[in-house]
Write a structure and sequence with these properties.
alpha+beta; 8 helices; 5-stranded antiparallel sheet
């Protein structure tokens, strides 16, 4: 079959070359350009159905319809870009075809997207480009083991953590530029802060891995990972038109997702793929249950990356990363389950099951342990119209915000607060009379904050889960009538930014929750996003061109609300802090460090002072060097001026260089080129 196909290939290529040369049979016509006979724009599609002549046209139509979606196919008179060889003796097709695209790029994409395409259960396409055919058919009969690839050292993928100044990094994207910077509050040049830059590095945006080891770039054929000191390529994952990327919490696995653009895409087995990050191995593919206009997060990961789960068929399907199969070969049956979330610190799922429409069956929140399937706690809720679940970042508490529709005009709000790490998981209820705009837990603490009341100036209330060291929910303070609609706690707790974004035009209140006082109030006009750095020392506000076409750029503030850097960028799209791995210190060690914070603060303040002095000295040295260069150039100019004095005076016909003694005479000469008369 391969020999027969090779003869057919050779004959077809020679015919095409011959057709081109027929135009130049006259020896008097020179070849101005050598003919390209590489055929890089042609693909070979094998494993097609063997059909009689009357069905060739139908099969060709199916192929052309499939491949015309990938790229433009050559059309020239009766030639439609497809050639399907026939076996004259048997009167049947030979089971393969050639398709000619307009360019090489389309041929490459066709191979990537359709090699392995299943036409039906008996015919799976084997596709390659024309130049690769000879390499395939000339494979020796005796196997020769390939040479193992040479090991390439990736370097230290966490090298940035060794920075002597303990600085963080961030990536920005504007127009088609991508840049990674050090966050340095000392007066340092932009060129000194710049770590890496590249034009057209990504098609859409960037994403960091959870520990900051890799940065992701998106491309049409798939995505790439970059890392190390110089951000070299660290992985490539071929998955066409990826729209969403998710890492397991420990960066062991990578999930790539494409939306369902067409109804047929929902049946695509590889719409969601899970990869091994280090080896690039595909672990498993899944269908995508979401749609283009309503995408859904494919999986939710447990805190340790051992399990990943999704809702399907009125149950929660939990998969194990040991074999990437359904845990114990069965789902967690929860008829009607609408939502679930993993605990950030334990393998516990909190699931919400709505009640019946007639109110006979209450809604319920269930806590389930994995893998034992033990139901740890259940709470029945009546007259529920909507709920939101909020896990504390440490997994200590779970808040369930419950909206109850008492009448068409009356809605009540309450918070069911679960104490997860206490015996029998007790629940406390907090009733709120006003509508709730926002809720946020304090990381590394026991407090939470509420925005409640009528917009645009609601109230902000701070609560604690511990009152005088005992388990009790109590109100700490309420700030009345503030222009706030979003809450942003520092990752270390203690400080919060009360922000009025979007329609409130970027009002910012930097608040110290320990002292219950505002440290500073400021504004970032038209601000669309706010993100804290991993240490909680700095916070960035920016105006993204995705949401607001004007005033694009970003501002970095310290935790007390003092601006450190303001940068304006046209078509500014994205700002992302580089995450840090979890701290290796125990809670006790962190507590000891906080006790000695004043001592450390003095040391670092002194280091900052020295760094500023050094920067100022460098700035003065730079100014002095520029002044010296200017003076040297001026001296050379004066020397040349004096050297050319005699020649200058000779040309001018006088002995003075005073420009004011010269008379400027302007003469205008006119010449009639043509005179034309017209009768009207």
């Amino acid at each position: 079959m391969d020999d027969e196909k090779g003869m057919e290939l050779g004959g077809w290529s020679r015919n095409m070359a011959g057709d081109n040369r027929d135009e130049y049979d006259d020896d008097d016509v020179p070849f101005t350009k050598e003919l390209d006979l590489s055929m890089d724009n042609v693909i070979v599609v094998d494993n097609l159905p063997v059909v009689p002549p009357e069905k060739v046209e139908k099969l060709a139509g199916i192929l052309l319809k499939l491949y015309s979606k990938i790229g433009a196919i050559v059309e020239d008179g009766d030639y439609n870009g497809l050639h399907m060889p026939m076996d004259d003796e048997k009167g049947m097709s030979k089971g393969f075809a050639f398709i000619e695209f307009v360019d090489k790029k389309s041929a490459v994409m066709a191979v990537e997207q359709t090699d392995g395409h299943k036409l039906d259960k008996n015919h799976v396409f084997s596709v390659c480009r024309f130049p690769e055919f000879h390499r395939i058919v000339n494979v020796p009969d005796q196997y020769e083991a390939p040479q193992p690839p040479q090991y390439k050292e990736r370097g230290n993928l966490r090298e940035w953590l060794l920075d002597p100044k303990a600085r963080d990094q961030y990536v920005i994207r504007y127009t088609d530029e991508s840049e990674i910077y050090w966050n340095d509050t000392v007066d340092v040049k932009e060129s000194d802060r710049l770590v890496f830059s590249r034009k057209k590095w990504t098609d859409t945006g960037h994403q960091w891995s959870p520990h900051g080891t890799y940065v992701v770039t998106f491309h049409r054929p798939g995505l790439r990972l970059w890392g190390g000191q110089n951000f070299e390529a660290a992985g490539r994952f071929m998955h066409n038109n990826v729209k969403l990327v998710d890492f397991s919490p420990c960066e062991t696995y990578l999930v790539t997702v494409t939306w369902a653009d067409r109804a047929s895409d929902k049946e695509e087995e590889n719409a969601i793929i899970i990869w091994d990050v280090r080896t690039g191995e595909k672990k498993r593919g899944f269908k995508n249950d979401g749609a283009k206009d309503k995408p859904v997060e494919p999986f939710k990961w447990s805190h340790d990356g051992k399990y990943f789960a999704k809702i399907a068929d009125e149950s929660i399907q939990v998969y194990s990363t040991e074999d990437f199969k359904l845990l114990d070969k069965k789902s967690f049956k929860l008829p009607g389950v609408k939502e679930f979330h993993w605990s950030p610190s334990q393998n516990i799922m909190a699931a919400f099951v709505p009640g019946s429409g007639d109110g006979q069956t209450p809604a319920r929140v269930v806590l389930i342990e994995v893998p034992s399937r033990k139901e740890l706690r259940q709470k029945n809720l009546f007259s529920v119209s909507d709920i939101q679940m909020h896990w504390h970042p440490d997994g200590t508490y779970l808040c369930v915000k419950v909206d109850r529709q008492k009448s068409k005009k009356t809605t009540t709000y309450s918070f069911e607060l679960f104490r997860i790490k206490e015996r029998d998981i007790p629940i406390e209820v907090l009733e709120i009379k006003d509508s709730v705009v926002a809720f946020a837990w304090e990381p590394k603490g026991h407090r939470f904050c509420l925005v409640h009341g009528e917009q645009p100036r609601p109230d902000i209330s701070f609560y604690t889960m511990l009152k005088e060291g005992k388990a009790a929910v109590s109100l700490l303070k309420t700030l009345e009538k503030k222009p706030v609609n979003e809450l942003f706690w520092s990752p270390m707790g203690h400080h919060i930014v009360l922000a009025g974004l979007k329609n409130l035009n970027g009002m910012l209140n930097f608040y110290n929750v320990d002292e219950m006082e505002s440290m500073n109030e400021d504004e970032h006009f038209l601000c669309t996003d706010l993100v804290w750095d991993p240490t909680g020392r700095y916070v960035c506000t920016y105006v993204s061109a995705f949401r607001q076409p004007m005033e694009n750029g970003y501002t970095i503030w310290n935790f007390a609300g003092r601006p450190q850097l303001r940068t304006a960028k046209d078509k500014f799209f994205q700002f992302l802090w580089r995450p840090r791995p979890p701290s290796l210190l125990t809670a006790k060690q962190e507590k000891e460090i906080r006790k000695q914070l004043a001592e450390y603060s003095q040391r670092y303040t002194e280091e900052d002072r020295k760094a500023k002095e050094l920067a100022e000295t460098a700035h003065l040295r730079e100014r002095e060097a520029k002044r010296k260069t200017f003076e040297e150039g001026e001296a050379i100019r004066k020397q040349l001026y004096m050297q050319w004095q005699e020649e200058r005076r000779e040309l001018r016909g006088c002995l003075t260089d005073d420009e004011d003694l010269y008379e400027f005479v302007e003469e205008t000469f006119e010449e009639v080129l043509e005179v034309k008369e017209e009768r009207i």
